[in-house]
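Milestone M4 deliverable, item 7.
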Amino acid sequence: MTKPHTADRSSSFSQHPFVRDLPPPFAASMERLAVERKYEAGDLLLREGEVAHEFLLLIEGKVALEAVLPDRPRLTIQTVGPGEVVGWSWLAAPYRWRLDARALKPTRVFSVDSDRLRTLLDENPVDGYRFLLRLLPVIAQRLENTQFQLLDVHGS
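Output delivered:
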């Protein structure tokens, strides 16, 4: 399942596309909140309905974001890979995952503790605003993909 790991963490964290252009002191503060995790193919990184306690930066691998619909097979909303992020439900109460995230192949991520990240955003409003501006297009894309997939399943 998930295994914490720290080898060569600093250089790869600062080079992750989501973090790369953030102000270095803010990125360094984020890095201090992060732990590297590994998942095998088939492992769930996140489960719909559970407490959203982390923000994930994908380093390598592939992850399917899946909706669980009553009386239907799992529905893949989007597949994401290295350089992308998983999880925004930690940002808004009630802090519950809205989708499952499943590793499609061996996957490594940086897991950033969301309670501490929210505090960091609050304590650094200018950098927090930049962070949110970077995350907002990801949220919009996920919502749009969800809408398209559900329209496809249920018909328009």
